[in-house]
Structures are given as C-alpha cells and as structure tokens.
Specification:
globular; CoaB-like_sf; phosphopantothenate--cysteine ligase activity; binds ligand PMT; three-stranded mixed β-sheet; DNA/pantothenate metabolism flavoprotein C-terminal domain-containing protein; DNA/pantothenate-metab_flavo_C
C-alpha cells in the first residue's frame, strides 16, 4: 500500500463523471424548488445530503472485478425518510441498487409476495400488505417526490462517489449553515488509481495478480475546510473493536472538525449508536423491534442543527 494521495491528484486522475452536466442541472433545479423568495431575500429550507451504501473499488478499467463494501444502505434510506418528515430537503447520494427510502419493507426475495390476482384477473396488492404499502405510497408522494424535496443521485465506484460529493458540497443548497452532511456511506479507504489500473480483464493465466493499493484521501477534511466550511457535518465511525470506537470517534471529531460523529460497532449498529459531540457522548438505543433507530437519531440531529443555525444567526447579528 502506498501513502495517502492529496485530494487534487485523486480528482485529476479519476475518470470523469459521465453525466456531470445532468447532475449539475438537477442540483440547480432542486435548489430553486427548495428556495423561498421573500421580502428579505432568498430563504432556503434546511438541506441535508445523506450518503448511503458502499463504494466499490474497480480492479480493471473495463471492470469485471471490484472490491466492495458491506453496507446495505438501510441506515441512509431510513434516515432520509425521517429527515423529510422533519421538513428537510434531502439529497440522497446512494449506491446503485442499495436500499431506497419508502421501499425498505418490500420483501428482499420477491416483490410478488406483495401481490395477488383478483377475481377479474386484475393484479392487486395482497390484503396482508395493504396498510404497509398504502402508508409508504402516501409518504413517498407527499413528502418525497410529490413535494420535490427529494433528489436522488447514484454512485457505484469510489471515483463517482467523491466527485458527486464534491458537486453537492459546493452547490448552493448545502454550503451555508442550513446545509447538513450526514455521511453514512461506507467509503473505501484504499483504491487502485485509474492510471495504474489494468485496462482489460485481468487474466488468470498470468498467475496471481500483484497490485498496489493507494490510500483514498480523507475527504472529510476537504469538505470541512474547502467545500462547505459552514455546513453542519455529521460523519459516521464504524469499528469492529469496542475498545477503540469512542476514541476513534473523538479523533475524527477533532481532526476533521465535525459537528457530530455517530459511532457504531459492526455487531450492534442496528441496535445502538453513540452520538459523540464536543464534550458529550449520548448512547441511543432502539427501544423495540418496531422502532427505527434512525427516528431517534434524526430527531436529535435536527435539534442540534437548528441550534447551530440559530447560534450562527445570532453571531451574524452581533457582528
Ligand atoms: O448501510 P447499512 O447496512 O445500514 O450500514 C450502515 C453503516 C454501518 C455503514 C453506517 O452506520 C456507518 O457506520 N457508515 C460509515 C462507515 C465508514 O466508512 O466508516 P469509516 O470509519 O471507514 O469512515 C469514517 C468516515 O470517514 C465516514 O463518514 C466516511 O464517509 C468518511 N471517509 C471515509 C473514507 C475516506 N477516504 N474519506 C472519508 O471521508
């Protein structure tokens, strides 16, 4: 493995995003939809960028094989629903094919389980799932798409993810204090730089391949210092060893100047998290199997974000 590259080199050598112009347009439209023009100027709904799912690291430019990350995207999808409910406009930056807001309860194996054929040979939702589907459609239309407050952007590779994150972070909707980053995606730490990657499928006849992995630059630092210095930043810390979890979360909080770090362990991340802020550690636990842990997390974050916005406004009036 070689040392961490600087962010500039990472972006200069990454394959360019194929649909960059289309994404830019979508961000502008989203921004306009979620701005309110009043006598005092342009006001914006609080906006959060939720990152979700795992990034891949391709091993070949014409990619057949890649290194993947375990994340299902459930946390990001559930959190998006609760952010929308709390009045946020949400940019849901997610892995293609990962879990989606309002679709979390659809069966994994076959969506046919949800369907029946009635006496007139028409397809309908099975009686047993009517309530769940109706509620999901209702929320999806009202808060999500119908309201124009949910923008979905997709990535697969680490190259796509970081380029999209940069575009979102420098777009108008997330740069000020009303912008929040909720970085729940499982982001690759190591990758094969594009220019040293095999062009074609690696041949087994050549024996076991040897490749050097480089370190992906930690973009939290760039996000905080350059892209969106005023935004409210929430990063996640995932560990497998409970002895180092909080210490690593504290380190991330200080080193990357995050507002909050949500610390979780692989073995228990669906049941509890520790919310680490400057000077406080708050354990949030799922109270029963019907409850989403994300409901409590988002409630807490929305409160802290709101205080942060008020604090910044008071500072501005004092100046
Ligand atoms: O999707 P689910 O299956 O529901 O799982 C949810 C989750 C366990 C993936 C989620 O709760 C979680 O912990 N996500 C963060 C996982 C992770 O990448 O942790 P990390 O310790 O490797 O990175 C810490 C932070 O640094 C992350 O917020 C990441 O966005 C950021 N990072 C990581 C690598 C990198 N090169 N640059 C970064 O900025």
């Amino acid at each position: 493995m070689v040392g961490a590259e600087d962010p500039e080199t990472f972006f200069e050598t990454a394959p360019p995003l194929r649909d960059a112009d289309a994404v830019r347009t979508k961000l502008q439209e989203f921004n306009a939809r979620n701005s309110i023009i009043s006598a005092g100027g342009v006001d914006r709904r609080p906006t959060v960028c939720v990152t979700s799912g795992g990034t891949t690291v391709p091993l070949e430019q014409r990619c057949v094989r890649y290194i993947d990350n375990f994340s299902s995207g459930h946390r990001g999808a559930a959190s998006t629903e609760y952010f929308l409910k709390a009045g946020y406009a949400v940019i849901f930056l997610h892995r293609r094919g990962s879990c989606q807001p309002y679709c979390r309860f659809l069966p994994d194996d076959s969506f046919l389980k949800f369907l029946d054929v009635n006496e007139e040979s028409k397809v309908q939702v099975a009686e047993s799932h009517q309530t769940a589907v109706k509620e999901s459609i209702w929320d999806y239309c009202k808060v999500g798409y119908g309201g124009g407050s949910l923008l979905k952007l997709q990535f697969t590779t680490i190259f796509e993810y970081l380029q999209l994150l940069r575009m979102v972070a420098t777009s108008v909707s997330t740069v000020g204090q009303r912008g929040m980053f909720y970085l729940a995606a499982a982001v690759s730490d190591f990758y094969v730089p594009w220019d040293s990657m095999a062009k074609h499928k690696i041949q087994s006849a050549g024996g076991p391949p040897e490749m050097r992995l480089s370190q992906v630059p930690k973009m939290l630092a760039v996000l905080r210092d350059q892209w969106a210095p005023l935004a409210f930043c929430v990063s996640f810390k995932l560990e497998t060893n409970s002895d180092i979890l909080v210490q690593k979360a504290d380190m991330a909080l200080n080193k990357y100047k995050m507002n909050i770090v949500v610390a979780n362990l692989l073995a228990t991340y669906k049941e509890q998290v520790i919310i680490v802020t400057n000077g406080a550690r708050n354990t949030v636990r799922r109270r029963n199997s019907d409850e989403d842990l994300e409901e409590q997390i988002i409630k807490l974050l929305a409160q802290k974000h709101s205080k942060y916005i008020c604090g910044s406004q008071m500072d501005a009036t004092r100046v």
